[in-house]
Design brief:
2 helices, 2 domains, elongated
Length: 130
């Protein structure tokens, strides 16, 4: 049922955005002396529709992801360093970007890491020795 509500919400907000775009182009811009031809309006509407479609795909994937019940469950997961950790930086674990602190020096961008601890929303990581 959640998915149906999300689809309806996405379609309605997309259509309202399209109507607002058309109203601005046909009513407001001519008041300021800016006239956009019909083919330009069609291109704008198509571009906005593509943007809405991409936003829908990204949003629906985010809604389908299973939440992490406990951050302690992150301990033991492996990932990659997205920035050098000296000693803090960012890592990607389970497809998500996390702020991290290194427990050992020498972790460069792209190195494999393993989560060894969690405090609040910060992961403590070590190089993956495997």
């Amino acid at each position: 049922m959640k998915r149906k509500g999300y689809i309806i919400s996405s379609v309605v907000t997309g259509l309202l955005g399209e109507v607002a775009l058309v109203a601005i182009v046909l009513w407001l811009l001519p008041l300021w002396g800016v006239n956009i031809p019909v083919w330009g309006l069609i291109l704008l509407v198509i571009a906005f529709g593509v943007y809405e479609g991409i936003s829908y795909r990204i949003g629906s994937r985010a809604l389908e992801m299973k939440p992490v019940v406990s951050l302690e469950a992150m301990v033991g997961h492996r990932g990659n360093a997205t920035t050098p950790l000296a000693p803090d930086g960012y890592v990607q674990v389970k497809g998500e970007l996390w702020q991290a602190w290194s427990t050992k020096p020498g972790i460069d961008k792209g190195d494999k890491i393993v989560v060894v601890g969690v405090k609040r929303l910060v992961l403590f990581v070590a190089p993956n020795e495997k």
